[in-house]
Design goal:
The chain has 83 residues and is α+β, with helices and mostly antiparallel strands. The chain contains one helix and six strands.
Length: 83
């Protein structure tokens, strides 16, 4: 039963991604990138990481853009200096 549910959800997600691509909706998943307040919303800071300060280390929720217009910012966790 769970396998069938998983397959159904996966097929629905694949179809949704096709519609997004067709309509030029871009997914923002910025893990490992430098924090950009124009596209990201910082939800928390993470200490003691190997990542450089200001780098996105965790994505809580992906963001979306349409024709360079932000629809929803990506909600992220950002690396903080371990001082």
């Amino acid at each position: 039963v769970l396998k069938t549910l998983y397959e159904g959800v996966s097929m629905t997600e694949a179809e949704l991604m096709k519609v997004f691509e067709k309509n030029k909706v871009l997914v923002i998943s910025p893990e490992g990138e430098k924090f950009d307040h124009n596209e990201h919303q910082a939800m928390f800071e993470v200490k003691d990481t190997d990542a450089e300060e200001g780098t996105v280390v965790q994505v809580m929720q992906k963001g979306y853009k349409l024709n360079d217009r932000l629809l929803r910012p990506a909600m992220v966790g950002v690396a903080k200096p371990s001082k």
